[in-house]
Specification:
Blueprint lengths: L2 H10 L7 H25 L14 H5 L1 H6 L2 H24 L3 H51 L21
Helix pairs in contact: 1-6, 2-6, 5-6
Length: 171
């Protein structure tokens, strides 16, 4: 197996995060935010009796449904920015709504938005370190195998230390 094949496999996995536990946690928080927003504006504490047009605030969350279901990293990236709008709304309504239930739901929305952001950021961070480490290990293994194949019998050759790549920006 050559290093180009391993690098191609690592690059192909960039669009999707394979760990099901991360995906389930992200899906759970995303679905909870949708349920909270809909329940709040339609039944529990709407601005007007009978429901409010503010329930349409879930449409951006619903637009993320295919990407969240498939665990697409690009969806996690833009959703991690979108949840800040829900956090902002939760803070404003948690501080200013006249009904106690509505204030409590506002703070619950804040907590869910922060948890969703944290989980998506952790997912993206874990994935960012995964493919690079895999590709670097594949390059090192291939270089080591090439050197061992070229070495005369009975002589030990150590693999050279991997050089940092240009894309590696970690401190």
């Amino acid at each position: 197996m050559n290093p180009q094949t391993l690098q191609g496999d690592a690059q192909a996995s960039d669009s999707r995060f394979a760990a099901p536990a991360w995906r389930r946690a992200n899906l759970t928080l995303w679905a909870a935010l949708i349920v909270l927003c809909l329940g709040w504006e339609l039944w529990w504490a709407p601005l007007r009796p009978g429901g409010s047009w503010l329930a349409l605030k879930v449409l951006p969350l619903l637009a993320a449904a295919p990407g969240m279901w498939r665990g697409r990293l690009y969806t996690y990236q833009w959703m991690s920015m979108l949840v800040w709008f829900y956090l902002t709304e939760g803070v404003v309504r948690g501080l200013t709504d006249p009904q106690a239930l509505s204030r409590m739901l506002g703070w619950a929305e804040c907590a869910l938005a922060l948890a969703a952001f944290g989980m998506m950021a952790a997912t993206l961070r874990a994935h960012a370190h995964g493919p690079q480490a895999t590709a670097r290990a594949a390059q090192t293994a291939a270089a080591s195998a090439d050197l061992r194949a070229e070495a005369p019998a009975g002589r030990r050759v150590d693999a050279p230390a991997p050089s940092p790549s240009a894309s590696d920006t970690r401190p």
